[in-house]
Design a protein that fits this description.
With 201 residues, this protein is mostly beta strands. Helix content is 0%, strand content 16%. The strands form four sheets. It has a four-stranded parallel sheet, with no helix packed on it. It has a three-stranded parallel sheet with strand order 1-3-5, with no helix packed on it. It has a three-stranded parallel sheet with strand order 9-11-12, with no helix packed on it. The radius of gyration is 18 Å and the shape is elongated.
């Protein structure tokens, strides 16, 4: 800017900032450290990558109605956003890195109605519920080996879900974990389950 080079480490824009409908591509620098913003200000962007320099992501993509591919690059360690993908009705590809160890937001991927499958990192910890609630196109998924409990409402309303796989020893199924999963045919081995919440199925 004015002949001076600056390193971008943070993004900030106000809640009432106007939309940028003329922007169809958005490239974030790998110097970025925080991105606590709503990318919904760019509703016509079709592909977005969160760089690995952002260790904890706390932004969202709500109302990015044309977003088809969302990638979290290797290096991202935590997604702390709740209801991050509300109304992302075109999202078909969600790429999560092996470095991702925690998802601490509630209903983080809820409402991604076009998402059919996703690969979860092997050591992922999910601390809140509703992770994939109302992902009505999600057909199958394999839970990470680190997950010994299916949190409350994790697949609530996933009407196309037919199969859940895991190599983990599931001991607990939370309330409404599989509520409304009308197509479900296969669930993890339940031999070691000691607690099942209300309306789990």
């Amino acid at each position: 800017h004015e002949g001076v080079s600056y390193t971008v480490t943070s993004l900030r824009w106000g809640f009432f900032s106007s939309e940028r409908k003329n922007v169809t591509g958005l490239i974030l620098p790998d110097t970025l450290e925080t991105a606590d913003v709503s990318f919904g200000k760019f509703p016509n962007v079709t592909e977005l990558t969160i760089p690995g320099s952002v260790k904890i992501f706390d932004g969202d993509m709500q109302w990015m109605e044309k977003l088809e591919t969302l990638t979290f690059a290797e290096g991202v360690e935590e997604i702390a956003s709740g209801s991050m993908l509300n109304n992302c009705s075109a999202l078909t590809t969600l790429n999560l890195p092996d470095s991702l160890s925690r998802i601490t937001g509630t209903s983080t991927f809820s409402g991604a109605t076009a998402l059919r499958s996703v690969v979860l990192p092997a050591d992922l910890e999910v601390t809140e519920g509703g992770l994939f609630s109302d992902c009505t196109s999600l057909e199958s998924i394999e839970l990470p080996s680190s997950m010994n409990a299916v949190p409350y409402g994790m697949f609530d309303g996933c009407t196309a879900l037919t199969e859940v796989k895991t190599t983990a020893s599931i001991t607990e199924i939370g309330s409404s974990a599989f509520a409304g999963c009308s197509s479900l045919k296969s669930v993890p081995a339940l031999g070691q389950v000691t607690k099942i919440g209300e309306r789990a199925f």
